[in-house]
Design brief:
Length: about 150
């Protein structure tokens, strides 16, 4: 894996969202989209998604905040309204709330690549070998692709 992507994980591992004040410009702009009290919460996609990429999740998201990489999806943390409906849709439990322990590093990965990858709102055909990648360890370190998917 390229060193710069490992750096994203390392940085994200110690990542904590700074407290936002109602007067901050970003809070004011987001307030129109979701309540101020939920600004700091989101859901994330973790490495269980890599090479499985089932895409059931995109069908249910009310705000279309999934973004497509070559072999996984991510959630844009500033667009997610924290509704939680996507979490039970994923067959490999790749979607978690950012309130769960241990998801900090995935928050950084989701935030970083959601800025670079195209939006996806409709399910496509999953990879033919998706089943064999379920539950495989170290998928981010060994299989992650920073390349974008094709989007919608
Ligand atoms: Fe979309 Fe809701 Fe899942 Fe966020 S929690 S990604 S808004 S379905
Ligand atoms: Fe990935 Fe699960 Fe969605 S495998 S594409 S997070 S349904």
């Amino acid at each position: 894996m390229p060193r710069r992507y490992m750096k994203i994980l390392d940085e994200a591992a110690g990542h904590e969202r700074p407290a936002l004040r109602p007067s901050d410009p970003c809070v004011r702009s987001k307030a129109a989209k979701k309540p101020v009290q939920s600004v700091q919460m989101t859901y994330i996609v973790n490495d269980n998604c890599i090479k499985c990429k089932y895409m059931d999740c995109v069908e249910v998201c009310p705000v279309d905040c999934f973004y497509e990489g070559e072999n996984m999806l991510v959630i844009h943390p500033d667009e997610c309204i924290d509704c939680g409906v996507c979490e039970p849709e994923c067959p490999v439990e790749a979607i978690k709330p950012d309130t769960e322990p241990g998801v900090e590093k995935w928050l950084g990965v989701n935030a970083e690549f959601a800025k670079m990858w195209p939006n996806i709102t409709a399910k496509k055909t999953p990879p033919a070998d998706a089943k064999q990648w379920e539950g495989v360890a170290n998928k981010f370190e060994e299989q992650f692709s920073p390349n974008p998917g094709t989007g919608d």
